[in-house]
Design brief:
39% of the residues lie in helices and 24% in strands. The protein is α+β, with helices and mostly antiparallel strands. It has one domain. A hairpin with a 6-residue loop joins β1 and β2. The radius of gyration is 21 Å and the shape is elongated. The termini are far apart.
Length: 83
C-alpha cells in the first residue's frame, strides 16, 4: 500500500532532505543513502520505521472496517426526526 511512497531523511551533516522509498525500508533492516547535497553516506535503521508503519496500517484497516460498517447502515433522512 505504501511501497511506492517516499520518506524524507535529513542529512546529519548538512540537513538536506533526501528521499527514500518505503519499499527500501521494508526489504532491509537498514538502508544507506548518499546525500544529494554533500555526498555523505547516511545509514538509516529501519526497525522502528517498520514498527510504526505496521501500526499505521493497522489503524488504516480499522478505519476502513468502520467506514464499511457505516456505509451499510441506513442513513437517517430528514423525515426520520420529529421536533
Amino acid at each position: 500500500m505504501f511501497e511506492d511512497e517516499t520518506v524524507d531523511i535529513a542529512c546529519p551533516k548538512c540537513g538536506h532532505p533526501n528521499s527514500i522509498l518505503v519499499r527500501d525500508f521494508e526489504a532491509n533492516s537498514e538502508a544507506r543513502i548518499n546525500c544529494h547535497h554533500c555526498g555523505v553516506t547516511v545509514k538509516v535503521e529501519a526497525e522502528e520505521f517498520r514498527q510504526r508503519l505496521a501500526s499505521v496500517r493497522k489503524e488504516l484497516e480499522e478505519i476502513q472496517v468502520e467506514a464499511r460498517r457505516a456505509s451499510r447502515s441506513r442513513r437517517p433522512r430528514k423525515d426520520d426526526f420529529q421536533i
